[in-house]
Amino acid sequence: MSxxxxxxxxxxxxxxxxxxxLRRSFxxxxxxxxxxxxxxxxxxxxxxxxxxxxxxxxxxxxTRYAANGRPGSTELARAMLDVKHALALVRHGxxxxxxxxxxxxxxxxxxxxxxxxxxxxxxxxVLAAQGGALVxxxxxxxxxxxxxxxxxxxxxxxxxxxxSAKEEAIRLHEGAVEVLRPHVRMxxxxxxxxxxxxxxxxxxxxxxxxxxxxxxESLALWExxxxxxxxxxxxxxxxxxxxxxxxxxxxxxxxx
Length: 256
Hints:
By secondary structure, the protein is of the alpha+beta class.
């Protein structure tokens, strides 16, 4: 059996659907109890997961609940359809996740992770693409994500690349803080008046920018006060500094 046609997770489709429903968040909080009660009516021990036959019975009970106009029935019916949609689309063991527009490194996502993500999303936001790929549209103007099937070896290589990039970003962060701390006021996130220079790890590097805390007037120190220029001078002696981008015009992006 090929990797693409093999089951992505152990268990029948009804067992998988039930697991996804149990993990789902509901605006009507009592639906979690409705699902749990349906399980307890079928499974004797609270420590046992439903087997294939029991999962079918639980699914039948939930289907009746969703169809009978009871409290939360509309939301439950929608959730069950979202889960069914996810199970129909996620057919591979590993996926490569790429943002559109492109932003940072691609990452590896397992079938389990993607099933939970797709099942939680509105099915109208999850589109099937060529070659078994999926497109998950963002709810707002943020980047959407494309998930393309990859082999286990490719997924491992993606994880290793992501780990190396993270380690490099941490090294850059530590180096930037070491350079800046003796000369500029550093941000203190724990204080309402903890304004100062903030160094943050981002996906493909490190951002250095001003954090005004609860004192927006402190932003003047960054531009007019010369702290931005001082930070650039200090960091340029050790790093290649790229100043600003479209999303954060007052940021400094560090890259080596």
